[in-house]
Design goal:
A: 306 residues, alpha/beta, D-Maltodextrin-Binding Protein, domain 2, 2 domains, 5-stranded mixed beta sheet, B: 231 residues, mainly alpha, 10 helices, transmembrane transporter activity (chain A), ABC_Gly_betaine_transp_sub-bd (chain A), signal (chain A), Osmoprotectant transport system substrate-binding protein (chain A)
Chain lengths: 306, 231
C-alpha cells in the first residue's frame, strides 16, 4: 500500500520538478526558436545568435538543429515553428523559397530578397554577416605561382592542359552549371572529373587535380592555403549569408533586432573558413567555436549603439 | 588532427567539448524521461482499467500494438506535420512508444496474481478498492516497473532519432559526426554516451524492480502475502 502511494507521489513530483526545469527562465513568454541546417557553418552562426541574444537580453533561446535544407527551414518559419533562421543565402532563397530567376549582382540579389521576404512572408532578411558561401575555382599555391593565376579568366591560356575536379551536381545544373560556364567564359578544361564535393580540396592540395570547384567558406581552403580565383565575369550567383527573422518577433521584441544587427558585417569569408576549420578538423563543437569567437570579440559590445 | 588516431581524437573531443556533451546528455535524458513519465501517468491507470474490464483490453492493447509497429522516423514525421518541429514533438513520440510496455505490463502484472490471494482478500471482507491497493498493486508493482524499464530504454533510442526534427540531444552530435570530414570520433562521442545512458537506466530500474518486489525483497517469508497484507 505505502509503496504504491510512494511510487505515484514519486512519478507526479518528478513530472512537476522536471516541468519546472524546462520553462525555467525568461519572463514567462515563449522561447525564441533558432533554426539551423546540417552544415557546420549554419550551426556556428545559430549558436552565435543564441549566445548573443542570451548575452544582451533575458530571453531564452531554443535551437532547432540539423534541418535538411533551407526549404525545410523556410517551411518551419512560415508555420511558426521557428522565429529566426541562422543562415540564409541570397542565391539559394531567390531560386528556392521565392521561386525567382537567379540574379548575378550581389547588391541587386540582396535587395530583391529583402523586399520579397518582407512583402510575401512578413520576414526580415538582414544584411549579410559579411561572408558568402558560393562556388569558386581554386588552385594550390604552386599552380597559382607557375601560371600567375588570379582570376578565372587567367585560366583560359592553360585550361586545355588542365584536369579539373568539380561537384557532381554542378555538371548538369542549368543556369550556373558546367555548360553555361563553358559558354560564358569561352574555354573548356582538358579533362573534367565529377567528384564528391568533400574530396576536391584534398585532390587539389595533393596535386591530383590542377584546378577544382569548391565552396568558398570550407575550412580546408585556409588550412591547405589554396588560392581562390576571382570570378571576374560574375558567373556564379551570389550566396551572401544573412540571418532571417519574422517581423512578428522583431516587433514583439525589438531588442532582438538590435542584437542581430550587431552581427552584420562581423564574419568575413576568410574568418568563416577558419571557424569551419576549427569545427570540422579540430573537433570543436560549433557551440564552442561560436562562444570562443564571441568572447574574442567581446560580444561586439562596442559595435553600433543604434 | 590527422596525426591522432580515432581513439585519441575521441578523448580530445571530450576534453574540448565536455560541457557541451554534458548539456546534450541532460537534454536527451530529460526528453526521454518526460515521455515515459507521461506514459506512466496515463498507462498505469489504463492498464488497471483494462484488467478490470476484460472487454476493453483487446481494443486498447491492439491500439498500443499498432502504435508500436510504426517506425520511429515515420512516427516523428507524422507528428511533425501536426505539431511542428522541436522537443515537444519528440516527447509525444516517446510517450506513444512507451504506452504499450507500460499498459501491457500493468495488465499482465495484475492478471497473473494468484486468484486464491484475491479470493482470500475478499473472504476477509475487503472492498474492491482494498483488494486493488492491498493485494493487486503491491504484487504487480515490480512487473510495472519492468514495463517502465523497457519503455525508458526504447525512449532513449527514439530520442536520438528526434535530433532529425531539431530536438537536440546526443543525436545531434551523431548527425554532426556524419557530416564532418572525418567524423568517426564525433559519432562515437554521441553514440557511446547514448548507449551508456540506456545501460545505466536499465540497471537502475532493474535494481528498483528487485527492491520493490515483495517476494524477492522478503526472502525469509515463505508466504510473502502475509507480509504484504500486514503492510
Amino acid at each position: 500500500m505505502r509503496s504504491i502511494v510512494k511510487l505515484f507521489i514519486g512519478i507526479c513530483s518528478m513530472a512537476l520538478i522536471l516541468s519546472g526545469c524546462s520553462s525555467g527562465k525568461g519572463s514567462g513568454n515563449e522561447a525564441i526558436k533558432v533554426a539551423t541546417v546540417t552544415t557546420t557553418e549554419s550551426a556556428i552562426m545559430g549558436n552565435m545568435i543564441k549566445l548573443m541574444i542570451e548575452h544582451y537580453t533575458d530571453e531564452s533561446v531554443e535551437m532547432i538543429n540539423n534541418l535538411g535544407s533551407s526549404v525545410v527551414v523556410h517551411q518551419a518559419m512560415v508555420n511558426g515553428d521557428a522565429n529566426i533562421s541562422a543562415s540564409r543565402y541570397t542565391g539559394t532563397d531567390l531560386t528556392g523559397a521565392l521561386g525567382e530567376e537567379p540574379i548575378k549582382s550581389p547588391e541587386k540579389a540582396m535587395k530583391t530578397v529583402q523586399k520579397l521576404f518582407d512583402e510575401d512572408y512578413n520576414q526580415t532578411f538582414f544584411d549579410s554577416y559579411g561572408f558568402a558561401n558560393t562556388y569558386a575555382f581554386m588552385v594550390n599555391k604552386e599552380t597559382a605561382k607557375k601560371y600567375n593565376l588570379k582570376k578565372v579568366s587567367d585560366l583560359k591560356k592553360v585550361a586545355d592542359k588542365m584536369e579539373a575536379g568539380v561537384d557532381t551536381s554542378w555538371m548538369n545544373r542549368p543556369g550556373d552549371g558546367y555548360k553555361a560556364f563553358v559558354k560564358d567564359y569561352g574555354f573548356d578544361f582538358g579533362k573534367v572529373y565529377p567528384m564528391q564535393i568533400g574530396l576536391v580540396y584534398d585532390a587539389v592540395e595533393a596535386g591530383k587535380m590542377d584546378v577544382v570547384l569548391g565552396y568558398t567558406t570550407d575550412g580546408r581552403i585556409a588550412s591547405y592555403d589554396l588560392v581562390v580565383l576571382e570570378d571576374d565575369l560574375h558567373f556564379f550567383p551570389p550566396y551572401d549569408c544573412s540571418p532571417l527573422a519574422t517581423n512578428e518577433l522583431l516587433k514583439a521584441k525589438p531588442e532582438v533586432k538590435k542584437v542581430l544587427e550587431k552581427l552584420i558585417d562581423t564574419v568575413s569569408t576568410e574568418e568563416m573558413q577558419k571557424l569551419n576549420y576549427e569545427s570540422d578538423n579540430n573537433l570543436l563543437e560549433p557551440a564552442i567555436v561560436a562562444e570562443k569567437f564571441l568572447e574574442k570579440h567581446n560580444y561586439f559590445e562596442d559595435k553600433g549603439g543604434e | 588532427m590527422g596525426d591522432l588516431n580515432t581513439f585519441q581524437q575521441f578523448f580530445y573531443y571530450f576534453s574540448e567539448n565536455g560541457s557541451y556533451v554534458f548539456m546534450q546528455f541532460l537534454q536527451h535524458f530529460l526528453i526521454s524521461i518526460y515521455g515515459v513519465l507521461l506514459a506512466a501517468l496515463v498507462g498505469i491507470p489504463l492498464g488497471i482499467l483494462i484488467s478490470k474490464y476484460a472487454k476493453l483490453s483487446g481494443f486498447i492493447i491492439t491500439i498500443a500494438n499498432i502504435i508500436q509497429t510504426i517506425p520511429a522516423l515515420a512516427l516523428l514525421a507524422i507528428l511533425m506535420l501536426g505539431m511542428g518541429l522541436g522537443q515537444s514533438t519528440v516527447v509525444i513520440a516517446v510517450f506513444l512508444y512507451s504506452l504499450l510496455p507500460i499498459i501491457k505490463n500493468t495488465y499482465t502484472g495484475i492478471n497473473n496474481i494468484n486468484k486464491d490471494l484475491i479470493d482470500s482478500g475478499k473472504g476477509m471482507g475487503m472492498t474492491k478498492a482494498q483488494v486493488l491497493y492491498m493485494i493487486e498493486l503491491p504484487l504487480s508493482l515490480s512487473v510495472m516497473i519492468a514495463g517502465i524499464r523497457i519503455a525508458l530504454v526504447v525512449a532513449i533510442g527514439v530520442t536520438a532519432i528526434g535530433a532529425f526534427i531539431g530536438a537536440g540531444g546526443l543525436g545531434d552530435i551523431i548527425i554532426r559526426g556524419t557530416n564532418a570530414t572525418d567524423g568517426t570520433a564525433i559519432i562515437l562521442a554521441g553514440a557511446i554516451p547514448t548507449a551508456l545512458m540506456a545501460v545505466l537506466a536499465d540497471l537502475i530500474l532493474s535494481w528498483i524492480e528487485k527492491k520493490i518486489d515483495p517476494i524477492k525483497r522478503n526472502k525469509k517469508f515463505t508466504k510473502p502475502t502475509i507480509q504484504s497484507l500486514n503492510d
